[in-house]
């Protein structure tokens, strides 16, 4: 349904564009908050105490690599392929986003000296020790 909507958006009335823009801004804002909080929780929570700066540096390199590759990807794929390029980019982001929780769970399980390994039975299934805070 989403693909059919995206392909046929050119035939919709003019007032749908501002409405879709407002919805996109709201969705993007929520996504930014989730990404930022999740990135900080994983970046600081999974890093060993002695390597916090190194891990944050590597995290920053990943962000900068995305900034450097974005023009090439957008120009080469999205603009050249039109609607199909946008749909492919959306599928790529959805797949990468869906891979995040399993990768984070794997990283938490396999890190050396995992302090939460013994407490996993007390944590509800699907809970993450990285994202928990002490009060």
Structural write-up:
- It is a single chain.
- This protein is an all-alpha fold.
- The chain has one domain (2-109).
- Helices cover 70% and strands 0% of the residues.
- It is built from 4 helices and no strands.
How are the SSEs placed, and which strands pair?
Layout (H helix, E strand, L loop, with lengths): L1 H6 L8 H30 L6 H30 L1 H28 L25
Short synopsis of the structure:
The protein is an all-alpha fold and 135 residues long. The protein has helices at 2-7, 16-45, 52-81, 83-110. α3 (52-81) runs antiparallel to α4 (83-110).
Main attributes of the structure:
transmembrane, transmembrane helix, MFS transporter, membrane, mainly alpha, 135 residues, single chain
Strand share of the residues? under 5%
Rg value = 19 Å
Largest sheet: number of strands, sense, barrel closure = none
Q: What is the share of helical residues?
A: 55-70%
Order of helices and strands: HHHH
Q: How many strand elements?
A: 0
């Amino acid at each position: 349904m989403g693909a059919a909507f995206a392909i046929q958006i050119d035939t919709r009335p003019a007032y749908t564009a501002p409405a879709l823009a407002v919805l996109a801004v709201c969705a993007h804002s929520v996504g930014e908050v989730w990404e930022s909080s999740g990135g900080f929780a994983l970046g600081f929570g999974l890093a060993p105490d002695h390597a916090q700066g190194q891990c944050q540096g590597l995290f920053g390199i990943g962000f900068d690599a995305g900034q450097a590759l974005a023009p090439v990807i957008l120009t080469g794929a999205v603009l050249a392929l039109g609607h199909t390029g946008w749909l492919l980019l959306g599928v790529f982001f959805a797949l990468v986003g869906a891979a995040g929780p399993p990768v984070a769970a794997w990283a938490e399980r396999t890190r050396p000296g995992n302090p939460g390994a013994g407490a996993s039975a007390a944590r509800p299934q699907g809970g993450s020790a990285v994202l928990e805070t002490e009060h």
